[in-house]
């Protein structure tokens, strides 16, 4: 089936390579997605005709088309050296959103358009209703916008015509049509040759014979490409590192490529809901049990949860995965710069693929489609980008059992939660991001990391026999297959949590656990501990590094609200997996990702402070972002504040991670603490 | 239905009070359990006739009867001042168990009997086959065995005849039949009046009008009872603390006691397995997917997982929750001593109640019954003490998606795991202990804490109006209802993990993450980190305190086994929720629970070193247990070693915890790390 122009789900003339994960909804294709497509025709037309119903609804297909027309008419699109990076809803004024009630006309819609014109990043704001540009500014600072789909086209063409690269390939017995080069964000290291140019560094892989290209890197070659001129500005074929291409054997992870014996088949198992799910999805508004919230896809951060309320009381104005930082830990030429800021350098939503029913999300999941802007401003659809489902895992919401006299008491409640999931497939890595809403008021944010490791080739096939200590040290990782090193790296994920606990004005309270002593005449008990609460007055007082030896609890309180007993209404942050950065604090990757200096931060709410490593991250110098904002040291007491939680894990690869990694999980929670008057799920019904 | 003597599921003449959680299988009773009982008659007879099939199978009903007969015949039971605490299988010699193969005759069975005779703890070992006592020794050290069911009877009788207590009740307008007193383990504080006596301290509650007695304490009264003489040795009715009894309103958590409106009813949801579960349970041996292990109920530690193997390769010889430490954090007279060692002071298995299908465990769970010894040596049954089920929670085992040229790849595998669950209902608290086996080789140990808080009564009804700073400080907790304080406390849970990674001889390796730097001429990258591995040679080198600033990974390696690539075969410990103790290290509760000095320990394997706070914990002085054993500083390199993981959480109560607490979870994992040659679930099949 051919799509009409207005449907336009296929971005124009874009070369699809692995890192350009734009879905082509191709209903003639026999893939799983084509089935979704043909089954859901009605849904497409509904999506294409949808109007915004809520101030935070993402730009609709027709709004995107209107923006595209305007950009074309004003000659901001379609010319040489004009690159369109993104078209997104500009966050409306928070007060306006808070005042808005369902049924009322929604406030003026603004589109935020990010362009690069002649290498200069520019932000244009379009009043979508009026069809008018209301802002057009160069974006200050050192960074550049992400590589756009438009860039990819030209990037792909470059190596094929660059003779030294062809020579390098020939020397390795390879042809250009057997390789694929991926544009890596180059970080920033003050290397004189790379200054003041918008760049990418290409890493090339042998594509021939396997689809798992990451396992077959051509080690030692780095192509530095100027993204404005599309010229190779530097070319490195390090003679010192001509490791062989790792073999294709055992690299394919697809089930179709496996041979028996298969893994012991388990009997079918599924989460079943004979009467269907208990939540409703109306546009972008989800209602379930005691929860209500808005969820929308977003090109940069994947998705945004907004206006989350429990029992009608505000918990969070907006929450999203603001930025990632993934530094690889080896100083060599082809690797030292790999210190990705994935959301800003690539885009979590743009790099999401449709979720696969039954494997990515359980049977009764509902799916939400995303509309993003292609490189020419035309909208395209990523179907099933987000799934929403009820989760029952055999867990227990609360329980008590005892025998009292003749009375046996056994009260238990099964735990059912609601999950909002998206998966960003950023090249090799896949990040599963779950927002899990519990009936007891807890929100759990869980990240699963899976996918394929970034591989460094080596001439080693074993660490056993003739390998020296120096060679072992130089691996900077683990030999996970023959000629294949999984390089050590970290994952830091910064969550932007604009909590509005029972209203926008909140304070941040650190409850420090302090040891007390009593003299023997007072009590035989020599020591015990108590909580000393400190209200953070300014941003500096709320830069939190977790410590086992100096434990604390962390509360976002509403100083204007108390329970009937006089306790301050609050949500508590329950830390989960956290790490601290091991990089030199003065080094450029650490400065650029300075949000990893602490595990938690509080800033005064500011509509423009959304992205933890700054608005433009590619090649940024660290002049924007959470650490810079926090340095303003603004008041954060009894005002609108934003909490930033930095989740993270160190990753020393192992053979189990090859050729595809079992999911590693990390999470944290926010938990109502004297928010409710009593256990909010006391009156939940047991199962029979 | 009356039970025959031989069935004997009802312990003789035991007064059932809330902390004596012995199940009476009463088939005339209309409770849920009676249904289980009548449905499962065949099962009872099977259980009663069962013979041990595996060296680690728990003592059978008939073995227990044989032990009882022997004890009676040798006059060790049935006389004054003879108290029977437990009859359990004595751990057979590990080498013997490892040599044993299914089908072979099982090695000689020994029963370990713990008695107190004239206040002196005594251990008797019975050769069950020969019907002969092979060991009879006084147990050295300062501690006493747990309060036995026999004790409870007499303890219950004591307050009713103690006039000062009756006077105190009268002064409060209460009658003896309206109250219930629970025997608390008294800790040890060197109080001269309490020395050299086996004691309990009674805390009394108003039982009238609510089943949630914990919410209605009679504050200020402490009855110190000598358990040998059953005389009150001290009586305290503190005039300074005559807080009112908190009201009954809102304390009942049973669904039958609630009134509308109820919590929003969700549509039915369940984990369904149309072809039934994929695991088999043969006696005590579980086989599922790539896993095989033995599980048995245990009176003291709840349950024990033994000989866990994945792909037929050994991972863990034995794993169990060895001890808990729950110190309450207030120095006042009625509270300072509440520093429970729950496993040793009470017994996690003894205090387990039958699991409730559909609420405690999902639909297709299978259940295992326990046979424990009653106070007269007669065995009784706790049905459904353990459940085993497959868990599918909508999670993803591994995933990768991308678009490569014309090829769309989307491979995802649903994550299914196997859970072994027990719930110890230790008076007010319920601990849900899950051992979760994953197909990727990970074992996750998860603890959920729920139930009812231990309450301190207060005359405060609000912390708002006229409350002074001193009064607030004196609360040592949170006002969670009118006149009701939830007292601050900690939970430490020590897991005994006798890992045998691919064989019994293992070493413990700490991989310290260390920052490296390079001069500018080597790399633009200023810093990165790498792993420096240290093999712990002695126990002292393996006392681990986690630190965010000095991160490490922790491996139990098999120095004799390497992968094909030469990597050392290992399992890694992935820490989860951990805390450090805030108590003065020289104080008696900390010395008695010195296993909380570190978050992880390694000791040389020793069959008798099972319980982290020592063999006898009640009133112990800290002369036995993990810290003492570690001080021997034995060799732990390339030998049989045991890992101890101390999981923990601080608990500052909040109103949401009243009148019953939503489950709080904590966990840690062990994870195969170069144990497999590649991702062990690569060949798992996708769902369709």
UniProtKB/TrEMBL annotation, chains A, B:
One of its GO terms (biological process) is amine metabolic process. It is an enzyme of class 1 (oxidoreductase). The active site is at 342 (proton acceptor), 429 (schiff-base intermediate with substrate). Gene3D superfamilies: 3.10.450.40, Copper amine oxidase, catalytic domain. Pfam families: Cu_amine_oxid, Cu_amine_oxidN2, Cu_amine_oxidN3. Keywords: Copper, Metal-binding, Oxidoreductase, Signal, TPQ. Residues 145-238 form the Copper amine oxidase N3-terminal domain. Residues 1-34 form the signal peptide. Its cofactor is Cu cation. Contains 1 topaquinone per subunit. Residues 54-136 form the Copper amine oxidase N2-terminal domain. Topaquinone (TPQ) is generated by copper-dependent autoxidation of a specific tyrosyl residue. The keyword Cell membrane does not apply. Belongs to the copper/topaquinone oxidase family. This is Amine oxidase. It comes from Ceratodon purpureus (Fire moss).
């Amino acid at each position: 089936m051919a799509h009409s122009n207005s449907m336009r789900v296929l971005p124009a003339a874009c070369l699809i390579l692995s890192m350009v994960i734009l879905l082509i909804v191709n209903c003639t294709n026999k893939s799983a997605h084509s089935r979704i497509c043909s089954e859901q025709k009605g849904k497409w037309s509904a999506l294409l005709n949808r109007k915004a119903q809520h101030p935070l609804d993402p730009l609709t297909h027709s709004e995107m088309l209107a923006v595209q027309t305007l950009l074309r008419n004003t000659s901001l699109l379609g010319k040489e050296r004009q690159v369109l990076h993104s078209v997104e809803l500009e966050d409306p004024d928070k007060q306006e959103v808070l005042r808005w009630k369902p049924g009322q006309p929604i406030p003026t819609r603004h589109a935020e358009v990010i362009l690069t014109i002649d290498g200069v990043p520019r932000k244009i704001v379009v009043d979508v209703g009026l069809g008018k540009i209301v802002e057009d500014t160069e974006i200050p600072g050192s960074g550049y916008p992400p590589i756009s789909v438009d860039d990819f086209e030209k990037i792909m063409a470059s190596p094929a015509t660059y003779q030294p690269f062809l020579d390098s390939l020939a020397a390795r017995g390879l042809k250009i049509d057997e390789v694929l080069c991926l544009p890596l964000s180059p970080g920033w290291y003050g290397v004189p040759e790379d200054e003041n140019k918008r760049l990418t560094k290409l890493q090339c892989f042998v594509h021939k014979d396997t689809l798992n290209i990451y396992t077959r890197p051509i080690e030692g070659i780095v192509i530095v490409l100027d993204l404005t001129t599309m010229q190779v500005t530097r070319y490195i074929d390090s003679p010192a590192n001509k490791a062989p291409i790792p073999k294709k054997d055992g690299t394919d992870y697809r089930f179709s490529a496996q041979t028996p014996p298969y893994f012991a088949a388990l009997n079918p198992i599924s989460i079943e809901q004979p009467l269907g799910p208990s939540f409703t999805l109306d546009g972008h508004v989800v209602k379930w049990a005691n929860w209500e919230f808005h969820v929308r896809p977003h090109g940069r951060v994947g998705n945004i949860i907004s206006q989350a309320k429990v029992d009608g009381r505000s918990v969070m104005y907006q929450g999203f995965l603001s930025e990632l930082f993934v530094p690889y830990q080896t100083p060599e030429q082809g690797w030292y710069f790999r210190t990705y800021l994935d959301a800003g350098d690539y885009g979590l939503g743009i790099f999401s693929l449709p979720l696969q029913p039954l494997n990515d999300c359980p049977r009764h999941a509902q799916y939400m489609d995303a509309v993003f802007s292609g490189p020419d401003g035309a909208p395209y659809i990523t179907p099933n980008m987000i799934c929403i489902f009820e989760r029952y895992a055999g867990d227990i919401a609360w329980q008590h059992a005892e025998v009292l006299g003749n009375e046996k008491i056994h009260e238990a409640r099964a735990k059912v939660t609601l999950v909002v999931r998206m998966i960003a497939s950023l090249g090799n890595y896949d990040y599963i991001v779950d927002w899990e809403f519990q009936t007891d008021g807890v929100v759990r944010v869980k990240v699963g990391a899976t996918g394929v490791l970034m591989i460094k080739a080596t001439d080693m096939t074993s660490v056993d026999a003739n390998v020296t200590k120096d060679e072992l040290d130089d691996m900077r990782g683990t030999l996970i297959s023959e000629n294949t090193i999984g390089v050590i790296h970290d994952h830091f994920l910064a969550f932007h949590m604009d909590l509005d606990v029972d209203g926008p004005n909140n304070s941040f309270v650190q409850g420090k656990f302090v040891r007390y002593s009593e003299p023997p005449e007072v009590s035989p008990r020599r020591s015990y501990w108590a909580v000393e609460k400190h209200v953070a007055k300014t941003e500096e007082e709320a830069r939190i590094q977790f410590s086992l030896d100096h434990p604390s609890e962390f509360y976002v309180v509403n100083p204007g609200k108390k329970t009937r007993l006089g306790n301050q209404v609050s949500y508590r942050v329950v830390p989960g997996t956290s790490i601290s950065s091991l990089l030199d604090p003065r080094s450029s990757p650490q400065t650029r990702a300075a949000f990893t200096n602490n595990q938690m931060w509080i800033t005064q709410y500011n509509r423009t402070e959304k992205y933890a490593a700054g608005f433009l991250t590619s090649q940024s110098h660290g002049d924007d972002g959470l650490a810079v904002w926090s340095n303003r040291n603004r008041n954060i007491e009894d005002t609108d504040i934003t909490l930033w939680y930095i989740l993270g894990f160190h990753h020393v690869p192992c053979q189990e991670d090859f050729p595809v990694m079992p999911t590693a999980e990390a999470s944290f929670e926010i938990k109502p603490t004297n928010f409710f008057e009593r256990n909010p799920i006391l009156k939940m019904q047991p199962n029979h």
